[in-house]
Design brief:
The chain is α/β, with parallel strands linked by helices and 248 residues long. It is built from 10 helices and 8 strands.
Length: 248
């Protein structure tokens, strides 16, 4: 028997309970016959006022992830999509692979995570070596993001950590701020810009920025959902979310 609405795929989506952006982003990119089933990872709205407090808050999310996995698996999704990014970059490629193993061992199905999805997206565009990174995090977490991309063979030329002071505050960053930050990151010495942080509203802005910057601008929510679709043989192309979904 096939689910009457998720007849192509049922995705279990894991995201922090404070996150208000990733769920509507993923739903906006959902093709017909694919359904998203959101499982909230219990997350207090931690005050991130330093490198230490931001890292500690992120560790809480990591520690509560498997409980959210067990909850969403009761609807028997055939694939999982991670809607939280920071923990998927910790400890570089080794840490990302360990995270994937832990979740897949618990769930019995595969998962797409933000770090590996962004690397796959950069490789799919091709000829990208030097990148800039934009995040809502603090510098200590940006260091983990840069470590991961370095492990994957990319040179992070520069980065911006917006230093949002709570998890909910990430979703309140304005388009004006993000547009200004993208312009400050751009330069002839980089091949692409990557935005990390799933509660940062960037999927449509990144698509627009590709046109006025003339280079790939990858929003992590777009990359992660694209990765999940393609991993399941769903090759639908759609406009409005950048070349990743329209061309690849």
């Amino acid at each position: 028997m096939t689910d009457t609405q998720g007849w192509r795929a049922k995705f279990g989506v894991l995201g922090p309970s404070t996150n208000t952006i990733v769920q509507p982003d993923f739903d906006a990119m959902r093709p017909r016959g694919v359904t998203n089933h959101y499982s909230r990872i219990f997350t207090p709205n931690a005050k991130a006022v330093s490198n230490e407090s931001s890292r500690a808050g992120t560790e809480v999310i990591a520690g509560n992830t498997l409980e959210a996995v067990r909850s969403v698996m009761t609807c028997e999704p055939n694939y999982l999509v991670m809607g939280m990014s920071a923990v998927t970059f910790f400890d570089g490629v080794k840490g990302a692979d360990k995270f994937v193993r832990q979740v897949e061992d618990e769930a019995g199905v595969r998962i797409s995570i933000g770090s590996h999805a962004c690397a796959a997206a950069l490789n799919r565009y091709g000829n990208i070596k030097r990148i800039a990174v934009l995040t809502p995090y603090w510098p200590a977490i940006n260091a983990e993001v840069k470590r991961y991309f370095n492990d994957m063979g990319f040179d992070v030329v520069r980065d911006v950590a917006l230093q949002c002071r709570s998890w909910i505050a990430i979703a309140e960053v304005t388009t004006e701020t993000l547009r200004h930050t993208l312009r400050s990151l751009d330069g002839d010495d980089i091949d692409a810009i990557v935005q990390v942080g799933t509660n940062l509203s960037m999927v449509r802005l990144a698509a627009a920025a590709e046109m006025w910057l003339g280079k790939p601008v990858i929003a992590i929510n777009t990359a992660t959902y694209w990765h999940a679709l393609r991993a399941n043989g769903i090759n639908d192309q759609m406009d409005g979310f950048g070349r990743l979904l329209s061309d690849f």
